[in-house]
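hey
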């Protein structure tokens, strides 16, 4: 069982976070460092959008910044008032304390269940009896208090992320989103005190970063095994800044909402919000380009592979079904590809093909 390094960072700049995660994914995949659990807070008022959201608006407005995660999933709060968590491991199941055969057979949707357990254990130790009902939310008495998501890169290394409502929650996010995205390009359900909550509300007292982060770190120690507390190294800090600068900004992946090429669009309500498929056709009627966007969780190499596989084929159910099945259909042999949020893969096929 590999040792898990635990790093607490109470003032980590959002752009440095992305750079640090990229560095740690490489370092953990190549065994330069053990698996890492990073628990952090960031300054400023932020909205965290997923890897696959289309957002062409201003990255900052009225003191609110938009940051884009490496992982997919819903829009969630970030920065001031939120506690962030990033767990980086060399494979999805590398540090799970279960028999080898059952671990290898875990379905993608079971991965978040396993890695959310440290959060549940830590929060319960504080007196908040949280529950993971499935999909991407952690709840207390059916009110959302945290959101989970994950990504695996081309090497197979996994980044599991969580945003925990500390002093601010999803009900505040809704108002921030109205200010930063008045055109409604980013989908988000309406939250209030009956559907969302936060740590300080449930404990009816102030909770420091050290107390909350320490409880969650202890929760992961109990659920995942041996841990070692340490600080960020000089190399990690330098690499975080270097990679952040190389990205060119917090909204670092352009997922354009318009343009003359992607002319055919279809949108469906999904398990996490909404998913859109945009397709451009060549003169001969074959697919010239395809783009998936919205509220879903998937590994980025698979999305790139699917969009590539679709090109050059007719936009019909048979061709789209073949491309989706080739990318995601065989859980045991597709190198860990996953797509969560659409339900059955047939829903994804119909979305792309434009069949309602």
């Amino acid at each position: 069982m590999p040792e898990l390094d635990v790093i607490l960072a109470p003032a980590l700049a959002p752009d440095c976070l992305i750079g640090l995660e990229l560095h740690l994914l490489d370092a953990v995949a190549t065994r330069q460092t053990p698996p890492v659990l990073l628990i952090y807070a960031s300054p400023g008022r932020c909205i965290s959008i997923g890897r696959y959201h289309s957002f062409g608006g201003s990255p900052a407005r009225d003191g609110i910044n938009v940051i884009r995660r490496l992982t997919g999933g819903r829009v969630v709060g970030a920065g001031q008032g939120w506690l962030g968590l990033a767990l980086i491991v060399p494979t999805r199941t590398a540090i799970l304390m279960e028999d080898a055969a059952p671990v290898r057979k875990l379905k993608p949707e079971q991965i978040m269940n396993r890695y959310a357990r440290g959060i549940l254990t830590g929060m319960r130790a504080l007196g908040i009896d949280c529950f993971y009902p499935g999909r991407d939310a952690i709840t207390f008495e059916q009110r959302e208090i945290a959101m989970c998501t994950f990504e695996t890169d081309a090497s197979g290394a996994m980044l599991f992320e969580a945003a925990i409502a500390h002093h601010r929650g999803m009900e505040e996010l809704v108002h921030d989103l109205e200010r930063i995205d008045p055109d409604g390009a980013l989908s988000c359900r309406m939250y209030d005190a009956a559907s969302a909550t936060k740590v300080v509300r449930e404990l009816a007292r102030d909770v420091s970063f050290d107390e909350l982060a320490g409880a969650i770190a202890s929760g992961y120690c109990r659920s995942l095994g041996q841990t070692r507390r340490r600080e960020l190294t000089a190399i990690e800090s330098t690499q975080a800044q270097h990679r952040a600068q190389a990205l060119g900004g917090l909204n670092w992946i352009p997922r354009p909402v318009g343009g003359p090429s992607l002319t055919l669009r279809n949108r469906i309500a999904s398990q996490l919000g909404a998913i859109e498929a945009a397709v451009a056709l060549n003169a001969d009627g074959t697919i010239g380009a395809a783009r998936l966007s919205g509220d879903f969780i998937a590994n980025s190499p698979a999305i790139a592979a699917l969009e590539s596989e679709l090109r050059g084929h007719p936009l019909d159910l048979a061709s789209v079904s073949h491309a989706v099945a080739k990318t995601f259909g065989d859980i045991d042999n597709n190198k860990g590809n996953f797509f969560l949020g659409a339900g059955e893969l047939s829903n994804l096929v119909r979305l792309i093909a434009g069949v309602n």
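The domain at 4-247 is CATH 3.30.930.10 (BirA Bifunctional Protein; domain 2). The mean pLDDT is 90.
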